[in-house]
């Protein structure tokens, strides 16, 4: 068993009396791809927003790289949650330049991340004219600028065509070789099954399953079992 880069302990988030995330305890190994599965509205995005500091937990704890999470840890966490944060009137390079200036990073990092996500040849094309897949990859490039140890991708294949999904899958797989741990949330079982090392299944705000992926396991059957059980709880 490897070192854990992220652990949550009994993490809860309540909105107006409704428990959206209910005592979730995740364990994410360093240099792995962790697939967070669950139907729409299961609590995946809410959990990831707490890990990235967008939402404050109602209760519970988060540990990052062996210590209690604090806002400085965001320097080591990259994320793409919901839609990519793009200035659509700017080119890919200009979008990244805004961030390198803000974070005091060298311009050489722009070329590095554009190469990683294969967007080096977009020239003067504005990002608003990009395909959905190109926008997603630019969003990931932005998340990679700060050399994160942990990259969080929330439903990154939403709206992509099969070619875009294949390209993104290949890109996500490459991150382990660069020493980047990935948390990938999705409701597409086959997507996660093809690239993840470990999975967690959330339903009704409850983490009902967390294990290393077993190629012999029928993931669809397992998913339906966990989701059905926790729906009854709700």
UniProtKB/TrEMBL annotation:
InterPro entries: AAA+_ATPase, ABC_Gallidermin_ATP-bd, ABC_transporter-like_ATP-bd, P-loop_NTPase. Belongs to the ABC transporter superfamily. NCBIfam families: galliderm_ABC (TIGR03740). Residues 6-229 form the ABC transporter domain. It comes from the Bacteria. One of its GO terms (molecular function) is ATP binding. Pfam families: ABC_tran. It comes from Clostridium oceanicum. Coiled coil: none annotated. Keywords: ATP-binding, Nucleotide-binding, Transport. This is Lantibiotic protection ABC transporter ATP-binding protein.
């Amino acid at each position: 068993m490897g070192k854990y880069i992220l652990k949550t302990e009994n993490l809860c988030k309540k909105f107006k009396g409704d428990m959206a995330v209910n005592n979730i305890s995740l364990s994410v190994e360093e240099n792995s791809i962790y697939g967070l599965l669950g139907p729409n509205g299961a609590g995946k995005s809410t959990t990831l927003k707490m890990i990235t500091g967008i939402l404050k937990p109602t209760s519970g704890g988060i540990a990052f790289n062996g210590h209690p999470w604090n806002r400085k840890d965001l320097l080591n966490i990259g994320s793409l949650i919901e839609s990519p944060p793009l200035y659509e009137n700017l080119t890919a390079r200009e979008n990244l330049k805004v961030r390198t200036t803000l974070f005091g990073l060298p311009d050489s990092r722009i070329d590095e991340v554009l190469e990683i996500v294969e967007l080096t040849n977009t020239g003067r094309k504005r990002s608003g004219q990009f395909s959905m897949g190109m926008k997603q990859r630019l969003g990931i490039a932005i998340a990679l600028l700060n050399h994160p140890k942990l990259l969080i991708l929330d439903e990154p294949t939403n709206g992509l065509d099969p070619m875009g999904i294949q390209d993104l899958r290949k890109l996500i797989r490459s991150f382990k070789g660069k020493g980047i741990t990935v948390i990938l949330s999705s409701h597409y079982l086959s997507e996660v099954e093809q690239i993840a090392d470990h999975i967690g299944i959330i339903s009704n705000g409850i983490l009902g399953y967390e294990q290393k992926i077993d190629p012999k396991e029928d993931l669809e059957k397992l998913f339906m079992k966990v989701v059905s059980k926790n729906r009854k709880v709700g």
